[in-house]
Model the fold of this input.
Amino acid sequence: MENIRIGNGYDVHALAEGLPLWLGGVKIESPVGCIAHSDGDVPIHALCDALLGALALGDIGKHFPDTSDEFKGIDSKILLRRTMDLVSAAGYRVGNADITIAMQRPKLAPYIGQMRSTLAGLMSVPEDSVSVKATTTEKLGFVGRGEGCEAYAVVLLLKNPA
Ligand code: MG
Done:
């Protein structure tokens, strides 16, 4: 395999009132949360798909099926750790990751730093190797109407020295 590999990931979950909201491994103060089989951490799911995609290992649904009781309500940080185990087993490490979260409300800016440090810790990279950005969609589409949250992730993997 080559010395560098790139991957991208995308995820979306519907929102409902009264559910906890977890984004980037951080609990967000919010009147709405994600409807999901797991804890519904959209950016972590996109990140896992980017990591798996970089190695052409399939997707998060293949490795952690939402039909399995094992993953019901699971903390997505565990899914990211397990995905990182697969990355390590393939002989790669994360070079950098860049994530964009699209959500109309609440404002996510106060949580960005904590998300970056949490994700960097889970991937064993320095914090400046992890970027998290948040945007609204100017009230357009399902995100703008507050019906859902979506996230995009891109990662670069570096091959470990032999
Ligand atoms: Mg998901």
